[in-house]
Amino acid sequence: MKPLLALLALVLASAGQAQTDPQPAEPPPLEVDVTGGQRAALPIAVPYMPTPQEAATAAGGTGALGRQVADIVATDLRNSGLFTPIGPGGLHAVSFPQVTAPDFPYFATTGAQNLVQGFVQANANGSITVGCYLYDIAAQNELTRQGYVIQPRDWRRAAHRCADAIFSRLTGEGAYFDTRIVYVSETGPARRRIKRLAIMDYDGANHRFLTNGQWTVLTPRFAPNQQTITFMTYQDERPRVMVYELDSGRTRPLVAGPNMTFAPRYSPDSRYIIFSMAIGGNTDIYRIPVAGGTPQRLTNSPGIDTGGSYSPDGSRIVFESDRGGSQQIYMMAADGSNPRRISFGGGGYATPVWSPRGDLIAFTKTGGFRIGVMAPDGSGERILTGGGYAEGPTWAPNGRAIMFTRGASQGELWYVDVASGATRRVPTPLGGSDPAWSPLRP
Amino acid sequence: MKRLTSLAAIALALSLSAGCAHRRTANELPPEPPSATATAEADEGQVQDNGIAPAALPGSRADFLQTVPSDRVFFDFDSFALDDQDRTTLDAQAAWLTRNATVRVTIEGHADERGTREYNLALGDRRANAARDYLESRGIAASRMQTISWGKERPANPASSEEAYAENRRAVTVVPE
After folding, report:
1. CATH 3.40.50.10860 is the classification of domain A180-437
2. How far apart are CA A212 and CA A229, in angstroms?
3. Could you read off the pLDDT of A240-292 as tens digits, one per residue?
4. What one-character-per-residue DSSP string does A78-140 give?
5. CB-based contacts of B142: which residues, under 8 Å, 6+ apart?
6. Which residue of A has its CA nearest to B150?
7. Cβ–Cβ contact A434 with B under 8 A
8. How far is CA A166 from CA A8, A162, A179, B132, B150, in A?
9. Could you report the per-residue pLDDT of A18-56, keeping only the tens digit for each?
10. Residues A376, A319, B153: CA angle, nearest 5 degrees
């Protein structure tokens, strides 16, 4: 924890120095206290965002939208675990001229170190502009500003983009709020569970179903280019991997033939999918172009080889295998050569997933069902959270948060912060399992 | 009269040649209607006319469930090895399948909830194939059998207990209705 805090402080300090402000004001020292193993969150004021002129839009009035955008920015920042938002409720109203001339003395009295202000304005062509400004209250200067011209229906995305800009500016880490989750929505008794493919914003908004529940579906994954989703279905009682085209809504089988295919994962360039195929009781990992073709076999052991995941540069594949007698994590080149075991702790390991940053591999530790991370060479194993049949980690695109499934008979989606281990439940309308986090939206 | 007798003799010879454990002659009545417990899983969810149970016609699922000691075999944790009891069960299934040579079956492999989802799909596939391979070794044509793995997606017992896990680690031979 401490090194990370120091890094955070360093990033903030260097960011402050990078300011072109003629007055070289040092940013105030960041709260780096470690209390009970948890980092103290940064207080940040987020007042409601005014509108220069109240106007009706397809998503409601601009005044109401300004309040809703501020609510979402505050919620995003709180969800990260690194910030304690103050407001929007309870703060003084901000007038439109004040958006670029904040009342710093007032906001200093709130205890906040930073301030987010903004506005929502209707444009003549039906679009709206959302402005987003970040200030350092003690230094009384602007740290970043962003403006988004969007269709009114996408107002939530503008709020997430604003929160992303603030998060990145203050932490030095990558953004991740303007993202989506594809997952399996679950309902009904365990013996006849109905499982539907569903997609939603990372915070649970804009939820919709992609399949009707007639057939069980499992383990969806986003293509890095976000044009397709791959998943497994029991359609026609033929368990196999499918590719869903997000634009057209069309679904097609990935691999021809009668054998069960499962555990699909995209290559970083979105050109290939690696998957497992079971032939006569033996499961190996194969690779095939997303558009279809002839599967190329990558593993060749009598054991169960599954759960492959590419390194961010596409040169290596981490996977699980029980070839040595128990489920363990192995690494191989992307062509299947040079497989070697990298997990050596007690118990079994499954579902390795390479971090988008490349620095860590998340996994499920079997026997107790815990979520952990290790370096790609297998060192530095660290358990983040466990209990309640936790399995199936998926990384946020900035590599600092993981979502996973918890619960056997009634699945739930959970979020864990990689640095602190803090967890929270992700809201879903029904039960949920097998989440897959999208990259940042284009 | 003579013609009827010779027919009965042929029928008797046929049933004996099948090596049937449950000997029947042409004079016997059709098999008893299945008991409620024997068909609980097969007929679950179906509304039946009051007081009229479906007949367990030869070659039907009801006949299969009545005839064999079990439609399923059970496995140890993370194992797909068959034991003596499993082989006895599968021997009886093979005998029934030999007698009902036109019936095609699906063998479902299942796992308990203590494995990860994808591993359990592969494990269920191993279990289904273990049962399938044994039936094939007892003379059942491979073309009559297909396998499907459900992993941990279709527990027989939804509880989280050792008893439930033991019930769920199974390969089930499913005869069409």
Report:
1. no
2. 16
3. 999 999 999 999 999 999 999 999 999 999 999 999 999 999 999 999 999 99
4. HHTTSEEEE-STTSPP--TGGGGS--HHHHHTTT-SEEEEEEEEE-TTS-EEEEEEEEETTTT
5. B132, B136
6. A239
7. yes
8. 14, 6, 16, 59, 45
9. 333 333 333 333 333 333 334 578 999 999 999 999 999
10. 135
Averaged pLDDT of chain A: 90
ipTM beyond cut 0.85: yes
> pLDDT class for B23, splitting at 50, 70, 90?
very low
pLDDT tens per residue, range A413-425: 999 999 888 898 9
So what CATH class is A2-171? alpha beta
Residues of chain A neighbouring B126 (CB-CB closer than 8 A): 281, 304
SS3 letters for B38-59? CCCCCCCCCCCCCCCCCCCCCC
Domain boundaries, chain B: 1-30, 57-177
Sort out which chain B residues have CB atoms less than 8 A from A239's CB and list them: 121, 148-149
A215 contact B CB<8A: no
- Select from A191, A216, A350 the Cβ nearest to the Cβ of B119: A350
Residue type, A69: V
Mean pLDDT across the stretch A193-210?
Answer: 95
Q: What is the DSSP string of A252-320?
A: EESS-SSSEEEEEEE-TTSSEEEEEEEETTEEEEEEEETT----EE----SSBEEEEEE-TTSSEEEEE
End-to-end CA distance of chain B: 37
How many other CB atoms are found less than 10 A from the CB of residue A116? 26
Cβ contact, residue pair B118, A389, below 8 Å: no
Sort out which chain B residues have CB atoms less than 8 A from A329's CB and list them: none
Report domain extents, chain A.
2-171, 180-437
The tens digit of pLDDT for each residue in A337-390 reads: 999 999 998 889 999 999 999 999 999 999 889 999 999 999 999 999 988 889
Reply yes or no on domain B57-177 having CATH 3.40.50.620.
no
